[in-house]
Amino acid sequence: MEYAGFFSELTPRLDGARVLGDELDRALAQRFNVFDYVREDESGLSRIIKDLLDPEASHGQGAMFLQTLLRLEGVRNERHWPEVDRTNVRTVKTERTIPSGRRIDIVVEIEGVGN
User: Fold this and answer.
1) Interior/surface letters 69-80, b for 16+ CB within 10 angstroms, e for the rest
2) For residues 46 and 86, what is the distance between their CA atoms, to the nearest angstrom?
3) Is 87 helix (H, G, I), strand (E, B) or coil?
4) pTM of the model
């Protein structure tokens, strides 16, 4: 079997399936489950916000929530934010300790911002 030919035919089909899956997620949020958020500890709210800001999370809305946050008046005035999408959001994390010993609840690393 010629593997190069097999994969060259398979790649466009996988790309098409990925695009279709993204469109279905935006419309139906198929992977989203509200019970994933049920927690009793104090970091539960941070986890909810982190997931909403993460373009790859199960809500299926891509970067829509993060884009909306960055367009808010008080946030927008802080700096010029780039348009965000799945390609330039590196990570979305909770609980990062900074050099002073304090902790930041949610950190979003965006390509080209603060790097």
Assistant:
1) bbeeeeeeeeee
2) 21
3) coil
4) 0.66
Partner residues linked to 107 by β-bridges: 93
H or E stretch including 21? helix 3-28
**CA pair distance 71, 63, nearest whole angstrom:** 12
What count of Cα atoms within 13 Å lies in the side-chain half-sphere of residue 15? 6
What is the amino acid identity at position 35? Answer: F
Residue-level pLDDT, tens digit, the chain, 115 residues: 688 888 888 899 999 999 998 888 888 888 888 777 777 676 788 888 999 999 999 999 999 999 998 888 777 665 667 778 888 899 999 989 999 999 999 999 988 776 5
CB 92 within 8 A of CB 53: yes
